[in-house]
């Protein structure tokens, strides 16, 4: 018996070593204190100006779609020629709310369909709506026709933090949509509320049969992941993995690898604290929630997300490009072979950067969150 007891600590240690790979996760990296570079490897060309632009997306012919938060949509050539698009629905424009994201459908070349999100006026506040429309161009004019809401927040909310970011799956068969917590944090953990969720749906808004809760009722059937605060970036990397960033409270902006059925913890855990100063338990205290592999305290206020692919900045291939609102910077994140992201560098832009897109020729395009807010094109310095 003494021999068994004497060997027990060694046995337990060996047992824990066997289990360790299953229960130990990598430490989250805090990149909040990184300094921005004032010398950048690119030239900046101002293409056009707009009233508080919110989102940009490229059409197959390399023209851009652009939304202004107040409720206007434009088509812009790379030379800066603007065509205003008629037929935009009324939006509830105040604070963080208004006309939000826009994206051409995967089959745009044949369907001419686009998807867009906005805050619709409603008693008691506004509702986030995802709509689809046909972009009709004729005689130098453009109009949204055959508009239909394919998903909408049924209960109005007074707060901001709408989310509203659209991402299409690489196969073009599914659509992912972020919905912020609308400044009602508890909703992010409420299975019956869309707030604080990333939703996955078919292109017509119906529930895919392989969703993690496809057999459930209501909003849960569309839910892909939960526990999000204010997700303003959503994009697929070249390897097919889905990444998201979201604004934390006072600290704790997050960059997350989004996986089916997982809970990312808000508001029960965060790497930031409430604005009142009241602390929030850290992710490390609740291993049952998915922790961000990369976060920022102090915050960068991330907005817009695009993965770089192109020849102009060949060394950046595969990098995640993120606009920084509070830090007024362009942030570049690299993801290593183990799937761990880290901020590689950030560049001072002298204005709040709202969205990022990459053109087919490899140039990087940004918009400033301002009035006037410029549309910028970045190309390498010689």
UniProtKB/TrEMBL annotation:
Record domain Glucose/Sorbosone dehydrogenase: where: 50-377
One Pfam family this sequence matches: GSDH
Cited InterPro entries: Glc/Sorbosone_DH
PANTHER family, A to Z: ALDOSE SUGAR DEHYDROGENASE YLII (PTHR19328:SF75), HEDGEHOG-INTERACTING PROTEIN (PTHR19328)
Name of the protein in question: PQQ-dependent sugar dehydrogenase
């Amino acid at each position: 018996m003494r021999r068994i007891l004497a060997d027990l600590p060694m046995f337990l240690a060996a047992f824990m070593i066997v289990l360790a790979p299953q229960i130990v996760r990598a430490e989250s990296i805090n990149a909040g204190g990184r300094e921005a570079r004032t010398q950048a490897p690119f030239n900046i060309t101002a293409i056009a100006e707009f009233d508080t632009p919110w989102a940009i997306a490229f059409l197959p012919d390399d023209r851009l779609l652009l939304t202004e938060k107040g409720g206007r949509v434009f088509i812009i050539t790379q030379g800066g020629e603007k065509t205003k698009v008629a037929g935009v629905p009324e939006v509830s424009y105040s604070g963080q709310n208004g006309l939000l994201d826009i994206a051409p459908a995967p089959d745009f070349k044949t369907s001419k369909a686009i998807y867009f999100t906005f805050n619709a006026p409603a008693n008691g506040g506004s509702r986030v709506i995802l709509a689809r429309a046909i972009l009709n161009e004729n005689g130098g004019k453009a109009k949204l026709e055959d508009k239909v809401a394919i998903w909408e927040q049924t209960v109005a909310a007074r707060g901001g933090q709408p989310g509203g970011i659209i991402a299409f799956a690489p196969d073009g068969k599914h659509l992912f949509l972020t919905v912020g917590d609308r400044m009602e944090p508890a909703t992010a953990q409420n299975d019956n509320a869309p707030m604080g969720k990333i939703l996955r749906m078919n292109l017509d808004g119906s529930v895919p049969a392989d969703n993690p809760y496809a057999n459930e009722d209501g909003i849960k059937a569309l839910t892909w992941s939960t526990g999000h605060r204010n997700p303003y970036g959503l994009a697929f990397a070249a390897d097919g993995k889905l990444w998201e960033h979201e604004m934390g409270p006072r600290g704790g902006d997050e960059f997350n690898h989004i996986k089916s059925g997982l809970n990312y913890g808000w508001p029960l855990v965060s790497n930031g604290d409430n604005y009142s100063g009241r602390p929030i338990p850290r992710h490390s205290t609740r291993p049952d929630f998915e922790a961000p592999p990369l976060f920022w305290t102090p915050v960068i206020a991330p907005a817009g997300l695009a993965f770089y692919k192109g020849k102009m900045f060949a060394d950046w291939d595969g990098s995640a490009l993120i606009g920084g609102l509070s830090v007024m910077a362009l942030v570049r994140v690299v993801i290593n072979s183990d799937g761990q992201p880290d901020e590689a560098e950030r560049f001072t832009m002298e204005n709040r950067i709202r969205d990022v897109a990459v053109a087919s020729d490899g140039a990087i395009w940004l918009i400033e969150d301002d009035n006037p807010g410029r549309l910028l094109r970045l190309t390498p310095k010689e």
